[in-house]
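Q: I'm building a small set of examples for a reading group on sequence design. Run inverse folding on the following structure and report the sequence directly after it, with nothing in between.
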């Protein structure tokens, strides 16, 4: 009886130990399962976040920036990651550069969405893209100015250049601003040239340069517009249809009927290159030309190169081909130039 009485507590102790051990094992199993669940859930959320970032990038590539921004919001809801922040900054830049809020929409539709992202990036004084961010904040200021009539982006462009004087965005956007303000093309050109010299975002720089010149729509911009087009031809670049139309109009104003002959001399591009660029221009399939105007300009360009006989022959061919279809005023212009070229011993 004594041994039995003594054995009961021992048995109970062993049981309690087993229970404790089992409880610990169960706790470990439950804890491990909880960790696995958490890890699985995090992996799932990270996967979904990455999918929404990829979707946002595809949408941005199609120019669907508002939808792209919503996809980034959904990515952040799943998991906020550095890669998402980087993608958001890239898409913010591209949305601002695109600068098209949609029909009858203010530019604030873009700027109000993206400026908080740019401001957040500036909270890091050592952000590797700080100059890029400042330049795009300046561009956002410019776009908002289109809505409100107020705002000066120059300070932000200058801050960006103080960080990186070769920054492609700051140079491009400051050049655009200088041209927009009505400064002579010579004021903007060094900044556009500096941007092109970086070898980065070449198509973007050209688009801003051409847009700035088109917006001016004055005689001072015409020589620069032809110079830029000539440079693009020499470098085998593509000229968009809208800009090609603007260059065509510049040629017609400078070499078409009743054009000022003194204006023809105020351009850096040689007559030979001007002729080559015009030939390149009229070969573009999306542009339409009145045949008589095209041929007239071509004749005047040939004269400018010093080939007076070729110019005279071109004008006579124009009359022979379209004589009965030329309106009276145009016929008078062509006849006057034929007489001038026929009696002049050399190009004026």
């Amino acid at each position: 009886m004594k041994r039995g009485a003594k054995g009961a507590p021992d048995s109970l102790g062993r049981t309690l130990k087993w229970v404790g051990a089992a409880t610990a094992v169960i706790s470990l199993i439950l804890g491990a399962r909880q960790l696995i669940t958490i890890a699985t859930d995090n992996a799932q959320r990270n996967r979904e976040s990455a999918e929404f970032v990829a979707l946002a990038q595809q949408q941005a590539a199609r120019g669907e920036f508002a939808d792209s921004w919503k996809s980034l919001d959904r990515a952040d809801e799943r998991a906020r990651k550095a890669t998402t922040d980087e993608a958001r900054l890239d898409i913010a830049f591209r949305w601002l550069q695109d600068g098209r809020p949609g029909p009858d929409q203010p530019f604030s539709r873009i700027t109000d969405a993206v400026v908080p992202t740019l401001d957040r990036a500036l909270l890091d004084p050592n952000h590797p893209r700080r100059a890029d961010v400042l330049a795009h904040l300046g561009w956002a200021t410019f776009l908002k100015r289109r809505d409100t009539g107020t705002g000066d982006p120059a300070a932000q462009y200058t801050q960006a250049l103080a960080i990186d004087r070769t920054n492609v965005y700051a140079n491009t956007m400051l050049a655009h601003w200088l041209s927009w303000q009505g400064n002579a093309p010579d004021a903007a050109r060094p900044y556009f040239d500096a941007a092109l010299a970086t070898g980065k975002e070449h198509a973007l720089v050209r688009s801003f340069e051409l847009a700035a010149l088109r917006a001016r729509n004055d005689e001072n911009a015409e020589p620069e517009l032809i110079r830029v087009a000539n440079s693009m031809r020499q470098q085998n670049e593509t000229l968009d249809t809208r800009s090609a139309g603007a260059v065509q109009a510049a040629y017609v104003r400078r070499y078409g009927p009743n054009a000022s002959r003194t204006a023809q001399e105020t351009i850096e591009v040689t007559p030979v290159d001007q002729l080559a660029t015009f030939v390149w221009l009229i070969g573009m399939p999306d542009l339409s030309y009145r045949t008589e105007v095209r041929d007239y300009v071509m004749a005047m360009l040939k004269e400018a190169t010093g080939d007076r006989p070729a110019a005279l022959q071109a004008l006579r061919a124009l009359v022979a081909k379209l004589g009965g279809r030329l309106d009276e005023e145009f016929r008078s212009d062509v006849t006057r130039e034929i007489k001038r070229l026929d009696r002049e011993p050399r190009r004026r």
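The chain has a mean pLDDT of 89.
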